[in-house]
Amino acid sequence: MKNNKSKRIASYIVMPLLFIILGFIVLFISGKPVAAMIEAYGNMIITKGAPGYGNEYDPELSKLVMNKKSTFHTNQIQVPALETHYANLYCERVELDAPVYYGDSDTVLSYGVGQYAASGLPGEGKPILIGGHDATYFAPLEHINIGDIVTIETNYGQFEYKVAATRIADASETDSYDLSQAKEQLILYTCYPFNQLLGDSSGRFFVYCDRIPDSETVSE
Known about the structure:
Layout: H1 2-48, E1 72-73, E2 85-91, E3 96-102, H2 106-111, E4 113-115, E5 128-131, E6 149-154, E7 158-170, E8 185-192, E9 203-211, E10 217-218
Parallel strand pairs: 1-10, 3-4, 5-8
Antiparallel strand pairs: 2-3, 2-6, 4-5, 6-7, 7-9, 8-9
């Protein structure tokens, strides 16, 4: 009798504990996308209000002076250090305002938008590939239209690009952009569908912008 009673008592304790543990596991798995989204929004709020968009990688970035003139010397173009803020990107109509970092690591994308390091720099005459999160800095891309003007300001000059086309593609597609083309094309991309907390977000939304040839380049 005592053994049966002990087993019943043990079952009353063990079974609820097992259900509690299983419940925590389910909540943890299902809550990860939500937690990631909250973290991304938190980072956006913190960094967008910081003067100069400084961060722990390089405190001197807070002293970065963006050149809003179109005249620049080609010898002023220097490859930035990885994970540093070297430019700002704007599109006034859709209220796009993002700090551009050199490199596209997960850490960089929590602070702003990231440029693929194997692509060109503004003013070099090569394609520029920049990615960002659809729930934070690149959320305004959902409302961008052909003909909109996108501006990049660096410490050596200001560059303007006109939106020529957009495209929705799968992340596995390899023909979504061509970094070997001999022209300066700004290519922006983010996850698609926009702001999707759960479900499939393997799509990519691309924005293709052609350089407006009104910037005056001064060669040495």
